[in-house]
Design a protein that fits this description.
Blueprint lengths: L8 E4 L5 E4 L3 H11 L4 H18 L8 H13 L16 H21 L39 H10 L3 H11 L5 H5 L6 E2 L4 E4 L8 E4 L2 H13 L25 H15 L6 H14 L4 H8 L16
Antiparallel strand pairs: 1-2, 3-4, 4-5
Length: about 325
């Protein structure tokens, strides 16, 4: 049986929505199913995980067995020549990345199993132990992910990073994260009607998992975003997104995630900082809110966390 060639492509349907395909029938049918119940970013992430997996195992979906999954795990951990998305030469992907990829593959086979396309899910639920007979289902997880705390910036580091930014647009985006706790995708997804200047609030229409929320943000954000709209926004921009590209062939188009990351990378280098990612800026905000005395429930609402347990790592007020 010929080995299918997996190529990730992005198309647009009749309504203008992005459609992700891999060029393999079973995989594309799963992505189509997934698009009806998940956000576009989730579908894209799953598609990339499946591309990595089937490129590495070089088998059709029906021929994959548990041994292929275990070999894939070893290869992803070890890295090396020909491996996709490795941290550095000779190094493999993180445990979190590996766990996510196995979850994507397991979800695919759960779908195929429910349809009757395969008879078993080749992704093991865990490895058996000597206690398995007495306590079924208590095996060792395939991937152990260490529980680490998110890094946060000191006030001086935030000031240095902000001073290294060159435009009102860039300072507004950083303020949204470090003073409002927005995620990167939420910052880039902001539209002009989402800004409530009179209330000093921002409406998050495209939050994680499709959840919406209305949150307060510091006046500093609205000062910078007002200056951006007045002095920097290209006239006749073909989008209602707040943050657009300011120069080059994509001028006036929505800023991409890669574009925002590039802006922060440059600012960190100019400021001489080793940290300052979008995720770290967001958690800096949430940590400071908790230290200032905000309850966990209020922090959960500000952050858009689905569970209050997501903020359990935050310090107690006054610490």
């Amino acid at each position: 049986m010929p080995v299918p060639v997996v190529r990730l492509t992005r198309l647009q349907n009749a309504t203008g929505e992005c459609v992700v395909r891999l060029g393999v029938r079973l995989l594309d049918e799963y992505l189509e199913f997934l698009a009806g119940r998940c956000r576009p970013n989730t579908v894209l992430a799953v598609a990339y995980d499946l591309k990595v997996f089937f490129t590495a195992v070089a088998k059709s979906p029906r021929r994959v067995c548990p041994a292929d999954v275990l070999v894939f795990m070893t290869a992803q951990r070890a890295g090396g020549e020909g491996r996709l998305q490795v941290a550095e030469p000779g190094a493999g992907v993180s445990a979190r990345t590996l766990r996510r990829r196995l979850s994507s593959v397991s979800g695919l086979y759960g779908f195929l199993l429910a349809r009757g396309d395969v008879s078993v899910n080749p992704v093991p639920r865990g490895l058996p132990t000597r206690r398995e007979r007495q306590r079924p289902g208590q095996g060792v997880p395939l991937v152990r992910v260490p529980r680490t705390l998110p890094q946060v910036l000191e006030p001086g580091e935030v000031d240095a990073l902000t001073a290294a930014l060159r435009t009102h647009r860039d300072r507004a985006m950083v303020a949204a994260m470090v003073l409002g706790g927005l995620r990167r995708c939420e910052v880039l997804g902001l539209r002009l009607p989402d800004l409530r200047f009179g209330e000093r609030r921002v409406f998050i229409a495209e939050g994680k998992g499709g959840h919406q929320r209305l949150i307060p943000v510091s006046p500093r954000f609205f000062t910078e975003v007002s200056a951006c709209l007045d002095a920097e926004r290209p006239p006749g921009a073909g989008t209602d997104r707040v943050f657009t590209v300011l120069k080059g062939p994509r001028r006036g188009m929505p800023l991409s995630a890669d574009g925002l990351d590039e802006i922060l990378d440059g600012a960190r280098q100019r400021a001489g900082l080793a940290r300052g990612t979008c995720h770290q800026l967001r958690h800096t905000c949430l940590t400071q809110l908790r230290k200032a005395g905000m309850s966990l429930e209020a922090v959960q609402a500000q952050a858009g966390h689905a569970s209050i347990e997501a903020g359990a790592h935050l310090p107690a007020p006054g610490r």
